[in-house]
Every structure is written in structure tokens, then in C-alpha cells.
Amino acid sequence: MDTIARVFLLLKLNKKSQKELGDALGVKQQLITDWKSGRVKSYMKYIDKIAEFLGVTADYLLSGEEKEVPAAISGDGLDNAFRKKLMLLTPEQRAILEAHMDLMLGSRPPKE
To answer: What is the CATH number of the domain that holds 16?
Structure first.
């Protein structure tokens, strides 16, 4: 999966729209659409802001791998053994697990 595909997967998983992303970046929605179609690759200059908007690292968007424990699984509510098991999952597997958890729980807890 390439960078822009990860961006759009995370938009979908986080139930955020292209317009919301465009508003957060200060760009028009048409530019986001152009990124998705592959016509324009200027998203690279926004990668840090996109990552912040989506709640991931720029490393994850670029490579699909986290260099640090993602904030979503570093909370105090998880014991170390479970946290280690989560870290063995690929980012895509973690995203699927989170999506399933969202369905089971109805929504994500608010971010602090």
C-alpha cells in the first residue's frame, strides 16, 4: 500500500471526509481529489500535517511502519503483554482491529 492509499484508508477508518482534511490543511477539496486520483503528488509537502490530522506519524504514512508505540496502544489501560502482542500486528492489521472494535463499541473514545 502506498502513502496516499494509507491516507485515504485512515480517512475512512476515522470517519473523516476529504473536505475535513482539506480544511485542516488549508487546501481545496479538489486538490485532495487530485491526490487520490494520482494526478498530483504535492501531498508530500503536507505529510506532517496530514499525519497530525489522522493521528499517526509521518513515518507510518510514508512506510506503513511505526518507529514508536502508536499513541492508540500506549495508554495505561493496557497491560504490557497485550501491548507487546499488538505491536506484532502490521499497521494494516491494527487498523482492521481498530475498525472492528469501533463497530463493536459503537464509537471511539474521545482523544485527549
So the answer is: 1.10.260.40
- Which segments of 1-112 are extended strands (E)? none
Q: What three-state secondary structure class fits 85?
A: helix
How many distinct structural domains can be found in the chain? 1
Q: How far out from the chain centre does Cα 97 lie?
A: 13
46-72 pLDDT tens trace: 999 998 898 888 888 888 776 554 555
Q: Assess if residue 112 is contained within a domain.
A: no
Residue numbers of the domain that contains 68? 3-105
83 belongs to a structural domain: yes
pTM: 0.59
Distance CA 22, CA 31 (A): 8
Is the separation of the CB atoms in 91 and 99 below 8 Å? no
pLDDT, tens digit (0-9, with 9 covering 90-100), for 93-111 = 878 887 777 777 665 555 5
